[in-house]
Task: inverse folding
């Protein structure tokens, strides 16, 4: 990311009800210990503050993810659904939004509706959807990983369609860091909020616990017969025997996970469109994401809402 983009990004969350830095201290590797929560262990993947319990911190350190129940209200989720519907029907148009279709559904040439949009990306210019990235209860947890100067590096709303039989609704196992060569990786976190009940039937998030402690693996398109969606790369040398955990979540539950955690999602075997909202967050400033000089598909950051 160039200096101009970084400067623009810096302004963004300054306007957006950023959390008070009172409980947050320096990155734990600096050796600083928070007066509010002294834990004798050396933590590598979480920062010292009083938000996470010791048990929650230990869980994230060990597994690379943490589910927080009931974090986003039904009312907010309904508003995001309504706005998503308007975007799909082209009642709302955004210049920089990326609209993605499922490769097997795109061939059907259907009229614009929620049935043809698998995912939108880069919704930061839509004030209604961007509200999601600014919800205080989301930022509160994000801050446990990024520290107080938070930026949204990427935003998505996924509308996983019913599988057409070709298994193209799957998302291969991957690491998000493959898509953004930024760092330090331990200060980046992805938030994934279930916008309805999600389990293995409609293709829940699948994680390989503990893999955040490993390195970035080579990714490529999986050799799947029914087709693979553009940019849906997967890890090639994946060990089929490693334990997969299927995260069953209720509407409003949010899982926070590390960008090296290996994850994906299975087929949607229901007739519903499984919806989740995702921002990927990172810190800004000299300790943050400044190593990234180029991004994989031309993403150059958020625009300040109140310049
Ligand atoms: C600081 C860092 C920031 C960055 C952070 C990043 C974090 C990332 C985190 C993790 C990220 C996770 C990983 C990620 O998610 S990465 C995903 C990134 N997303 C993209 O790259 C989406 C870009 N989208 C597009 O390019 C278009 O929407 C495409 C080209 C896909 C469709 O174009 P359009 O809308 O105009 O469609 P059309 O109906 O006119 O069809 C045109 C042709 O395209 C075929 N087609 C249609 N759909 C697909 C498909 N899905 N897969 C393959 N092909 C497809 C279609 O059959 C037809 O082919 P043909 O019949 O002519 O042969
Ligand atoms: N043996 C495997 N090798 C490579 N990738 C796998 C393997 N098993 C699962 N995956 C990946 O993990 C994702 C989730 O797997 P999961 O088994 O939950 O989904 P599914 O096979 O579509 O559904 P189900 O097993 O519930 O019928 C899949 O979409 C696929 O990308
Ligand atoms: O919700 C899903 O299917 C997983 C999406 C995902 O991991 C991603 O887009 O990077
Ligand atoms: Fe991902
Ligand atoms: Mg399976």
Result:
């Amino acid at each position: 990311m160039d200096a101009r983009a970084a400067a623009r990004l810096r302004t963004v969350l300054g306007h957006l009800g950023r959390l008070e830095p009172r409980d947050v201290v320096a990155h734990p590797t600096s050796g600083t210990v928070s007066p509010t929560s002294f834990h004798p262990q050396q933590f590598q993947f979480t920062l010292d503050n009083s938000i996470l319990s010791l048990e929650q911190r230990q869980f994230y350190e060990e597994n690379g993810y943490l589910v927080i129940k009931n974090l986003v209200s039904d009312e907010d989720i309904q508003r995001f659904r309504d706005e998503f519907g308007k975007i799909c029907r082209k009642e709302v148009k955004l210049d920089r939004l990326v609209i993605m279709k499922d490769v097997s559904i795109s061939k059907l040439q259907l009229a614009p509706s929620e049935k043809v949009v698998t995912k939108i990306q880069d919704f930061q210019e839509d004030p209604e959807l961007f509200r999601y990235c600014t919800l205080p209860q989301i930022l509160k947890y994000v801050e446990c990983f990024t520290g107080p100067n938070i930026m949204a590096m990427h935003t998505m709303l996924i509308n996983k369609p019913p599988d057409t039989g070709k298994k193209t609704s799957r998302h291969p196992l991957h690491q998000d860091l493959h898509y953004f060569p930024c760092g330090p990786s331990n200060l980046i976190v992805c938030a994934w909020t279930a916008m309805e009940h999600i389990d293995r039937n409609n293709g829940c998030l699948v994680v390989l616990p503990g893999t955040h402690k490993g390195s970035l693996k080579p990714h490529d398109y999986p050799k799947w017969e029914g087709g693979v969606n553009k940019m849906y790369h997967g890890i090639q040398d994946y060990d089929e025997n490693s334990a997969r955990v299927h995260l069953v979540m209720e509407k409003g539950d949010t899982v926070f996970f590390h960008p090296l955690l290996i994850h994906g999602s299975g087929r949607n075997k229901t007739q519903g469109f499984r919806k989740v909202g995702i921002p990927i967050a990172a810190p800004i400033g000299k300790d943050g994401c400044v190593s990234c000089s180029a991004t994989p598909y031309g993403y150059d950051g958020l625009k300040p809402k109140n310049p």
Summary: Helices lie at 3-14, 54-63, 74-88, 103-106, 127-134, 136-146.
